[in-house]
Amino acid sequence: MYKKTVQIKNQSGLHARPGSDFVALATKFKSTIKINKVDQPNRVANAKSIIFVLSLGIKKDTVIDISAEGEDEVEAVNQLVALIENGFGEL
Questions:
Q1: Is 50 a catalytic residue?
Q2: I need a surface site. Which of 16, 35, 64, 84 has the fewest CB within 10 A?
Q3: Distance separating alpha carbons of residues 74 and 17, to the nearest angstrom
Q4: Are 1 and 62 in contact (CB under 8 A)?
Q5: Which of 4, 9, 15, 59 is catalytic?
Q6: How far is CA 83 from CA 12, 18, 40, 51, 78, in A?
Q7: CATH code at 29?
Q8: What is the CA radius of gyration of the chain?
Q9: How far apart are the two ends of the chain, measured CA to CA in Å?
Q10: pLDDT (tens digit per residue) in 8-45
């Protein structure tokens, strides 16, 4: 398993279009990918499901963990973190 922690930078958080972009990227990988808010480690969501991602209510400045397990786990986590750090093109 590979995991990184990142802070959401874009204004709308992981809602609507940014959430869809996040899920679309996650689904490109074979690994199982999960996300959770750092302050709620027991609420883990499947990063490949828009419903589960939106249910976390991740807003601007929220700190999240992204973890993956599988053959492309490092690439998956690193690309998802890069997407967040680039503000989904909103910054």
A1: no
A2: 16
A3: 24
A4: no
A5: 15
A6: 14, 9, 22, 19, 9
A7: 3.30.1340.10
A8: 11
A9: 30
A10: 999 999 988 999 999 999 999 999 999 999 999 999 99
